[in-house]
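Page 47, continued from p. 46.
Same chain as before, 481 aa.
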Amino acid sequence: MTTTVPRVTRPIPSPSTEVRPAARGEAVPATHTQTERLVRGRHVHQVNNNIALGLRFDGRLDVPLLERSLHLLAERHETLRTVFPEVDEEAGEEQVMLLLPARQRDLPVIEAPDVPEEDRLSAVLALLAEHSNQPFDLAAGPLFRPVLGRVHEELHVLSLTTDHIVFDAWSARIMINDLLNLYAAALGDDVPALPELPVQFPDFALWQHGHLTGTQLDRQLGYWRKQLDGITPIPASGLTDPDAPAGADPGVSRTTETLGSELGTAIEEFARQERTTEAVVVSAALKAAMWDLRRHGLDDTEAGDVATFGSLANRTRPEIEHMVGYVATPATFRTRFTARTSFRHLVHLESQTLFNAMRHQRIPFSLITRELAPEQYGVRFEEAGKVPVYLNFDMDMVEDEREPLLSPTGLEVRPVGIPMPEVPRGGLRIIGYRRREGTALELRYRHDLYGRDWATRFLRSVRTFLERGVAEADLTLEELA
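Result:
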C-alpha cells in the first residue's frame, strides 16, 4: 500500500567527520544500507533479518519493573521506535524513517508447557524462538519485540528481538547493558547513571547523507573501485565439493575444530610479535587453506587471488559508540599472494587488507554495489538462491566466555541463545571463539553444497596452516602445504 510520506528533512552537505545532533522534520532519509533493504527486500522475510538476544534470569524477577525498564530503554534509543512507511518509488519518493512516540507496552509472558521439569527450559526457548522468527511489519512496527518466558517462579528467559534494519551486533551489548542498568537503578541498586547520548540514529542517518558527497564519496569509492577490480563486491569463494550430497535440501550444518590452549597461546604470541591481531593470523591461515584447495583447478595467480566476505563495525566516531542502530557494513577482504609467499608475509598482507578496509569503511557496502556492481545491489535481501556462494569470516574473534553481565539484587543474569534457524546464504561461514580450553573455529556450511567430510578436512587444513605457519613463519605456502 502506498502512503503519503511527511515532508523529508534533507541534510546540509558537510565535510565534517563529527556526527552532530541535527534539525529534523517528521521524516528522515533512511540510510543507504536501509534503503537497499527497503527497495529490494522489504517484503522478503528471512530469519537473518530478525536478531534475537536472550537473557536468563535466575532468582526473583520483578516483571512489572522489567516492563517499565523496557519502556525506558525504548525511550532512550530512538532507533527502537522507528518505522519505514511504504512509499511510491515510481513517483520518486525516497525511503524514509519515522519516529513513533514512546508508549508503554505490556510485556508478553509465555508460560512453560506441561512437560517434565528438566525439559521446561528448552521448551520455553523453543517457544521464544518461534515468536522471534515472526516477520516484522517495517511500515507499521514496532521493530523491537520483547517477550518473557517463565520456566518457573525463579527462572525466566527474556527474548529481545529486533529487525536487523535498526540494529547491529555492536548494539547488542549496549542494549543489554542499558536494560540491566535501568532495572537495577529502579530497584534501588547503587549503579552509575547512564550517560547522556550525544546523538541518536536519525542524526547518524542525516550525517551520512550529508557527509558522503563530492570528494569524500569519490575518495572512499575510488579505493574500493581499485581494490575490487576484476572481482565482484560479493566475491565467489571458488570452493566446491565434488562429493556434495546430491539432491539435499538447502540447510546449514556445523563442525568445530578446537585449536587448544597451546596453539591458541602460540597464535597470540605470534600476533604480538608481528604487531597484528589473532584474528588476522587466523584469517591468513584461512586464505592459505582456500588457496590450497583452489590451486588444483586454477593457475597460481588466480588461486592466490582470494577474497572473503565479512562485516566492519563502522563505529569510527566516539559520539556514536553508545548509540543503538544499524551502523555496521559488510566488506570484501581481498588478498593476493602466490605459492612462494611466506606465511609471515601473508600475515602482513592480510593485516594491510584489514587496515585499508577499516580506513574506508565509512562508505556503506550498499553504495559500493550500487556503483560498481548494480547486479549485486540488494541480492542479500532477496531470496537466498540469488546470492553467490561466498565465504564469510567473522574477523572479530567472538568472546564465548565474556565479562559477566550486571546482575541486579536478587538475580543472576546470563546470556542464553535463542535457537533460531539459519538461512543458508553464502555457503560457508567461519566464526572464531575464545574459550577456556583455547581458541575454537566453527564452520557453518550449506549441506546441500558441501559434505561433512569436506567441511572437516577444510577446517583441519586451516589448523595445519596455523600450526606450521606460526612455528615456521618464513616457509613458503608451498612448503607449508
